[in-house]
Amino acid sequence: MKSPKTHYRTCPLCEAACGLKLEVLGDRVSAIRGDPEDVLSRGYICPKGSALGEIHDDPDRLRAPLVKRDGEHVEVAWDEAFEEIERRLLPLLEEFGRNAAAIYLGNPNVHNLAGSLYLRPVIKAAGTRNLFSASTVDQMPRHVSSGLLFGSPDTIPVPDLDRCDYLLILGANPVESNGSLCTAPDFPGRLKAIGKRGGRVVVIDPRRTRTTRIADEHIFIRPGGDAFLLIAMIQVLFAEERVDLGRIEEHVNGLETIRSVSQSFTPERVAQHCGVEAETIRRLARELSRAGAGAVYGRIGVHTTAFGTFISWASDILNILTGNLDRPGGSMFPRPAHARIQRKPGGRGFSTGRWRSRVRELPEVRGEFPVATMIDEMEKPGQDQVRALITIAGNPVLSTPNSARLQAAIENLDFMLSVDLYCNETTRHADVILPPPSPLERCHYDIGFSSLAVHNYARYSPATFETDRPSEARILARLALLLGGQGAGADPASLDEMLLRGSVEGHISNPYSPLHGREIQDILSQLEGRSGPEALLDIMLRTGHRGDAFGAREGGLSLSMLEDHPHGVDLGALESRIPEILSTPSAEIELAAPEILGEFDRLDAELSQRPGEGLLLIGRRHLRSNNSWLHNIPSLVSGRERCTLQMHPDDARQRGVEEAASVEIRSAVGSVHAPLELSEDLMPGVVSLPHGWGHGSPGARLSVAAAHPGVNSNCLSDGGPLDPLSGNAILNGIPVEVKAI
Ligand SMILES: Nc1nc2c(c(=O)[nH]1)N[C@H]1C(S)=C(S)[C@@H](COP(=O)(O)OP(=O)(O)OC[C@H]3O[C@@H](n4cnc5c(=O)[nH]c(N)nc54)[C@H](O)[C@@H]3O)O[C@H]1N2
Ligand SMILES: Nc1nc2c(c(=O)[nH]1)N[C@H]1C(S)=C(S)[C@@H](COP(=O)(O)OP(=O)(O)OC[C@H]3O[C@@H](n4cnc5c(=O)[nH]c(N)nc54)[C@H](O)[C@@H]3O)O[C@H]1N2
Ligand code: SF4
Ligand SMILES: [Mo]
Fold first, then answer.
1. What is the number of helices (H) and of strands (E) in the chain?
2. Residues 244/277, Cβ–Cβ less than 8 Å
3. What is the pLDDT of residues 649-668, one digit of tens each?
4. Is 376 exposed, middle or buried (0-12, 13-18, 19+ CB in 10 A)?
5. Mutation test of ligand 3: which of 13, 50, 629 has the most ligand atoms closer than 8 Å to its C-beta?
6. Contact, 251 vs 190, CB < 8 A?
7. Ligand 3 centroid – CA 702 distance (Å)
8. What percent of the chain has pLDDT over 90?
9. What pTM was computed for the model?
10. Distance CA 727, CA 352 (A)
11. β-pair type (662-666, 734-740)
12. Ligand 3 pocket check for 18: Cβ under 6 Å
């Protein structure tokens, strides 16, 4: 018998980016544990990480391209699949123009080196303005507020979890989600440690959660009410003269403007609208200002609301006003290994609305339109109507608003292509599906999440298993060449070569690069024969602030150095980065961008109306889920049914509905039926239904998920009203009615 081999790799499933230790026997994984020596995760693992082997082995996971023939998907060879795309898609673009194709990018792209490095050429080659992604049902507000405050949408501060004494969490449940826009494996342990060192964790959430249970205090809030709570806390800080910016004071612009526009938002005035008592709001502001070092951290429950961007901004403002931005234990900017060497502060700043969507005239944000308007672009006839869709690693039929209508619009398209591991509720509509290899058959480096981690680190994992099938980078490269008119048979290596040369030449001509003025051959010869994403990553690491600059800096980082450190390289605790990191034109933090000031009028208008009295629907995550796509893994769906509507017993009594019975949940745009679960954990007036369910569609190939279908909560979310600054959809705080059936 063969003896098992040990492999180490990063879990790609969620933002915690845990380091895992895999026991491999032949071509199978026999066990997966947390890697106790990992520099970031120190042995932590959750049930999803342990299930990576099951994903790899899942018989439903696609191994060959599928093409639809007479309404049925059949397996074809790779060449045939690309020929089909060329034959069907290119004539459409010829006839109707480039905007006739829409692209939708799903969440797992961010967890994948190919997605991080090879999507740009695909988007460029497609040449469409109809670009959409999961970002506008997720974190787009955080990009916009960061862009306005700090000058770049990717300059996102994270709570310095391991050193703070006070943490105010709004709309996040990291004990189930393992954290988001805050990479911190073992989030629960890190939260408990705050209490152990004498600190305090307060959670604001309309539902009692596993996170509220380990916190020192939980405060209910009316869904969507956080903007009022936060602006009143800001008002209190000014009114009680508690503002103290600390070391960043000289880098801040607009403080007096914020003092004056926030003046009228007293705790008494907002209390009813957020459902939090005025005295509690005052106390929270005082606690934050008195804490040694503290941070305000908000996530999906507050970003997917009508004031998502404002809330993200207000959280940072509270950190700034209490001297907590950019100080140890406060809210800090990570510095990943691949971050470039910073030039002097200042830059072009950030703006949105460089172009607008055709139907609803919504502004682009970071080159995308809100995914909520993808339906409109498909449905409304006219020049530039969307007739073809390319989805890459996404399931918008389950994850984006007004899904029933979206599904109908997708059915009417002339052509659809998907790059995905599975034939799911969305990709079942595709004329061609191109499946990348499994998560264990690729190399991994977290470009995104090492930029959001509570401790600086660098970690690279090689592929655990080799495969003959094309890598995702190869698939995307071939697609980019095809879209660029080079034909279905173009060699993807030519794109690798182009990207590589482009990157090296860019560095050589850039006076701020450590490679400025070097010889191209000197650089290429040091790449040790690497190509594709690994070559690009090596260049990023070696030109980064800790890099070896291709021999110019002894002991610096390179990809081969990371290969020698399978548990990762510890790059130390977070460090202060202001002003170096600021890229606003003024090189200062701009507190009072006009876009934000405009939101104060909207807040005022809301406050002049009485809050509604009906039920408000919120979402819910479970540790063993990951949006829509892990319900086909037996160990992750076993046990009690999870797709239930949770409701407070008082609300149930009032409506004459009973536990276990299926109830009808109706919103402005649709209705679904789900089993009712009574729970004292809900704030009265609030009901909760998880997203990502609604399996069992004909034509999908998810046999395990089909046995645990649940219902699609996004049949209830309305793509009409959005967070105006980011275009983010409103997925929490949806008015609904619940009735017995
Ligand atoms: N009501 C409601 N809706 C929500 C949310 C909510 O809280 N409430 N949350 C929103 C959020 S935060 C997000 S991020 C979105 C997610 O929305 P999506 O990204 O659209 O959906 P996922 O369920 O993540 O689907 C991911 C797809 O990628 C495929 N996949 C996995 N790995 C790979 C890979 O390596 N390569 C390729 N090509 N494909 C891969 C999977 O098979 C799956 O089909 O949902 C959003 N929708
Ligand atoms: N197990 C698991 N982990 C995941 C995912 C998953 O689906 N399952 N998805 C991953 C993804 S893509 C993301 S983006 C992250 C998201 O990570 P989190 O942001 O931690 O997401 P949730 O667990 O949905 O927590 C949102 C919380 O907001 C609360 N909430 C709802 N409305 C409001 C409101 O108006 N105000 C306030 N204050 N709270 C509100 C909800 O009750 C809920 O407890 O999780 C990631 N990790
Ligand atoms: S917490 Fe996230 S990264 Fe860690 S094992 Fe679980 S799914 Fe993987
Ligand atoms: Mo997300």
1. 26, 28
2. no
3. 999 999 999 998 899 999 99
4. buried
5. 13
6. no
7. 22
8. 98
9. 0.98
10. 11
11. antiparallel
12. yes
